[in-house]
Amino acid sequence: MFAGCPQLRRPGCRGAADPSQSAKTHEPQIDANRPRLSEPTANLSLQLSLSISTELSIPTSRAIVAPGMTIFTAPEKRYQGYIFDCDGTLAHSMPVHYLAWKKAVREAGGQIPEDLFYSLGGVPSRQIVSLLNEKFGSQMDPDGVATLKEAYYVDLLAEVTPIEELITFAREVALFAKVAVASGGILPVVLKTLDSIDFAGFFSVVVTSEQVPRGKPYPDMFLEAARRLDVSPEACLVLEDSPAGFEAAEAAGMDYAVVSRPVSA
What we know:
The chain is α/β, with parallel strands linked by helices. The protein folds into two domains: 7-30 and 39-92 and 161-258, 3-Layer(aba) Sandwich (Rossmann fold); 94-158, DNA polymerase, domain 1, CATH 1.10.150. The chain contains nine helices and nine strands. The strands form two sheets. Strands 2-1-9-8-3-6-7 form a seven-stranded mixed beta sheet, with helices on both faces. Strand 8, helix 9 (243-252) and strand 9 (255-258) form a beta-alpha-beta unit. It is globular, with a radius of gyration of 17 Å. The protein starts with 6 loop residues before the first strand and ends in a 7-residue tail after the last strand.
């Protein structure tokens, strides 16, 4: 079964969404003159990620609840650019990432509760280690633990499977629009993940955390993907499964669709 409900959210729409209304009745209100790489407001602080629960409790304001498929509902509107997260969106890899995190953190003398791990989806690995140190008073080396975690994850890549609804959607929209990946991972590992789900070479643009000044929940990654696609942010749809990704898309002035997290029955 699948947890959560699929949602399409647009910046600037106020009030709780009525599921009976079409997405077209909620037009984004975007200030075209605002700077795209300005300092984010307080709600983009990484510290807030520590308090997000595993239920991914998404505020209902500016939300459009879309009936249909269980894990993801394709919006009616067509966009010029589609920007996909990788882990938890294209690839059912988050449980594998958690196993790798748990092993690496345990060896370093720290802890990473599963609910906290899922709330930090999309946040770069080194930042996660720093947040864990702050929350639990540990003294883990961010670079060392992040590197070890990635090595353990690569060892487990055979366990990663594609999320078929999103794989099919990506192939469909690539017929008429530009597509990219924007992931909180690092490029070599993200490319290995895409290869493991038979998507090697499919995306001409792949933006990862080491390529931008700030990772999610800041907008830099999505804005860089839009720049490389040569598509304006307002003409892009982001496909995401994590709170940090939702905040990043909101800050970038992009519409975004929520991908629910697959869980075991």
